[in-house]
Amino acid sequence: MLNDPIFQAAFHASPIGQYLLAPTDGLEILAANDAFLRSVGRQREDVTGRPLFDVFPNNPDDPQATGVQDLADSIRRAIDTGATQKMATQRYPIEMQRDGRCWFENMYWSATNTPIHAADGTLLCISHTTIDVTAQALAEQALRASRQEAVRNAQTAQAQRANLEAVLQVAPVGILVVDRDGKVVQRNPAHVELLGRALPRRQECVDFGGWTGWFADGAHAGRQLDAADWPLQRALAGHTVEHCLLRVQSFDSTDIRTMLVSSAPIHDRAGAMTGAVAVATDMEARVRAEQALQEADRRKDEFLAMLAHELRNPLAPIGTAAALLLRSHGDDEQVRRTSNVITRQVKHMSALVDELLDVARVTRGLIELDKTTLDVKRIVAEALEQARPAIEARGHSVQVRQPPRPAFVLGDHKRLVQVLANLLHNAAKFTPEGGLIQVELAIDPHHVRLVVSDSGYGMTPQLIGRAFELFAQGDRTLDRAQGGLGIGLALVKSLVALHGGSVNADSAGPGHGSRFTICLPKVEVQAQPAHHPLRDGHDVLAAGTPLTILAVDDNEDALAMLHLLLSAQGHHVVTTPDPREALRRADVAAPDACVLDIGLPDLDGYALARALRANPRTRHALLIALSGYGQDTDREKASAAGFDAYFVKPVDAEALSAALARARAA
Predict the structure, then answer these.
(1) Which residue positions does 4-aspartylphosphate occur at (predicted)?
(2) What is the number of structural domains in the chain?
């Protein structure tokens, strides 16, 4: 049969792969046609006469390979039953060899095993026909995988939509999603609650012309939004809008709420814009809370200013009484000592009040610096003069080291003296008696450095870390021998920062003293410091003839003490608590000087000063303001009203006498 020419021609011409197997245990390959040999990449001599599973073994590296066993079982059933056995499509990797390489290539086959018998029934061979369906199987696998992936993606997308829907439903911010045409895709309950249900629409698209809102901050604060200004509309135009604070009217009513709105375009994976989303956060409660805090802060500052005024009012007659007591009974040692005690305590109380007011102004950014070019050496001299009583009272020694040339900075003379004097007072206060205080002034290429060091109690690292915080203090004894409110260094830091400088503290530890370093920007151009339009009176000595003085204060004790003080200096004093009565008396007496309280009833001191300046009989009189208010704005208002000098209660008797000396000189 195998040598029959007709069989040979038909066998090898068949497009279907086929081989014949001997019915032996080894299942030797008797013949293989050309179609099969092409599909497995073999030559006829490579397979003919060899056992089937020696030529086509399982892949030893593939634990899931079952091709050999499945084919052997099918052939055995064909032999046993004498019937054709059709096999399901199976994976049967074929060992390939090429260019010295050997590998197993995954192939899929659809095969049939048919027993061939002679006329007498003798089994001659087994015909194995097989079709290579690898491409089809792989395509079906890819299709199945694609379908499974599509199902998984759909399930994932559905889960994501469900999650997004759940998030939108409970999100505390309003979310509005539209497509690129402006049609609403999603609007969560918070957005409805925030803006109302009746969302303005035109042909199913959001109608921004029906929205009403105003900008709430920035350069456009208070301006009503046009349709193109709305963040969502801008997002549809391709722009991203972040943190736009708006006041928006409800769609359902006239209610207006403050909200923070952000918006952005939405793009697909290809980058094409598919819509936009806007997120609105309700800020109404926060804005109201901030307004309440600002109002409370404003009331606090008003209270502090009024407290200072009310505290200074009783201090004024006390201080004046002490000065008068010393003037009239200065030869009595007990009276002199008592008067000095009262004067010191009045000054201490006044300094505490000033610190409270200063810290209130600094924390709110209300301090305005009168900057001029200053020689820091003058600052050092004046600060030392201010701190000298405290230094001498504790028996400290002072060493000053400074360069011979000027050290110029751009700053406020009064505030820089205040800064350095504060550090010197602290050094005096926190150094045991008989200590050493050193002041060093140095000039760097770009900065002027001021260093104040002492041999005092020193500071722990923890205290250094919070030394410049408001109300920060070190450990105190029960008697609070050092006193103070713990706000001085906070003021120092804030005032230095306003000058563009820095300040830091250092200490080797408790018992090793402290060191404070101020660094200020240096300027090269020398200029003379400007003087405040209101003089403090310390540069003129009291001398000359008695004056006629009009004194006006609604505090009867303060007015009585002022009358006694001025009379003791030899002046003729006219007093009244009534500002309108003061105008009448001024017109009669034509005083040389007027000492006026600012906080007068009915007609305040500013209005009274303007009226006196308008009267020809008092136009050239020296006008001196006395007030419990000491802010820079108060001094500016006094200067504008026509005052020549401004004193914060309690007034220093010597300073007042010096100021009156100008009227004598005139």
Answers:
(1) 597
(2) 5
